[in-house]
Amino acid sequence: MTGTVGSGPAAAGSVGETALGPGPVLRNGERHPYRAVAPAPGTARVRLDSLAPWGRRTATSVSLAFLAHVTDLQLADVQSPGRLEFMEELRGHPGAAALIPAQRAQEPMCAHAVAEAVRAVGRCLESRDTGAPLQLVVSTGDNLDNAQANELEWYVALMAGGRVALGDGAPYDGVQHARWPGADLYWRPDERNGRFQRQLGFPTLPGLLDRAVSPFDRAGLTIGWVSCYGNHDGLPFGEVVPTPAYRSLVVGGRKPLALPQGRDVVGHEDRLYSHPEEFLAGPARPVPPGAGRRIVDRRDFVAAHLAASGMPAGHGYSRRNLEDGTAYGVVELSPLVSLVLLDTTNLDGAATGSLGVRQLRWLEEELMARHARYRTPDGQTAVTANPDRLVVLASHHGPSSLTNLRRLEAGMELDQPRVGRDAVVALVHRFPNVVVWLNGHRHVHEIAVRRAPDGSGAFADIATCAIADWPSQFRLVELVANEDGTLSVTTGVVDHAAPPVPGDAAGDVEHLAALHRELAANVPGAGFGSRLEGTAADRNAEVLLPAPFPLGGRTAGPGGPESLPLAPAAPTRNTRP
To answer: What is the homologous superfamily of the domain 2-573 according to CATH?
Structure first.
């Protein structure tokens, strides 16, 4: 069961009001029942105290920032020759966990789920706790699935508004087609007696795939949005370096069906990451080529954001990012709160993250500029003339996933050497005004309070589940200053706007989004009752922190945040390589 802030067609309510969970069994498979998604009892908000037991909260509180957090959209060109869906044959193989899932039954409908998440944001424009306006949508990466230009175009169209051109009007031609050759690895909705139908009770839905790749139009967000750069935004499969041979294959007319005979991946992942074309040299099928599938890099990603309509200008990035080939920056939410966007993707391959040394120096400078006092590396107190500001970090990988120190001689990553979890977290703990770190990557709801070793402060490490997988939700996050000297970080998760039952949908996009969620909910081990849902304390929670500096004199008052025009911080703060 997943607790939510609002479900289906109902407007977003107070935390714990509604939830979605397993409904009646629709079909019994040999191994697993296939259930409907249905409303369920909600979960009350859980208080997570930090550092010390605090007394009773006072009634007076002021909103400092109110954000929506979405992550791991994984908009996939499901017909691309560059995808490695056939790796599904390794599911359950010892040592293959890093390669699975390679294909999701629901992924042809992922863009529709994202569209309904964007629509749901429009129902959450005011905090039910404080009345504050929703300021910004923060995507923490893996907006794309295979780092392709067409996937990037779809992402911008969904966020800013426009035509989501999933196909060119031609019928679907990919691994979920009933005529596609190869092992019975995939749900094929046109089949009546496929493996997924027999074993898992999945439905037979003739014509679904052609509908799923049809273009559609969306209005986009009515508030500002920014993006972080994730491993799937820069690396095909989220892991492999796009070599010249791979780049040629992905726009070409040959789609591999299986690994080359005698080629083993497990135990040879490093070779896959650095030379993916060797694993795509097996039997293949002709498909229509597509120049729109070209692989995009950091500059392409930034350029698309600079060209996108809406606020803030650049959506978190500046012209300096484009010149330098970087994807990190600062957005000022108000005179009191800064949002710092980090780029944790290592373009030398593999799925986990890290920071480069240049970005780490930049981060340290940005944090210094937002602290009147902080600790130096040797534990001394540094005093500055800078005004204190609260800092919200946002990145694709959270602290626990910063383990990727790969360096390839012929790799794409320019910011080397890489810096991992311990050094990054140690740096953050020196700056007590960092109170929240938003992240994704692991496709799970999870909240942890990360305390500084010397007890000088703490921050809320907030991971949100993937739109791509069950429970397909986003999260609302609000920073609230309390009169008793505490800072509350409140969170609640929100279902996308499609109804729980696909048959109750009002239109095709809504129907496909509802079906996406239902299919994801029935994936064994990753659906109903899985760790992806998190606990009640990971979904609807209040993290209570001591305010790192006096907040009362600089807040905006009961009406909500004193917002500035949302724009990237001055580009001179970006450090040139």
So the answer is: Metallo-dependent phosphatases (3.60.21.10)
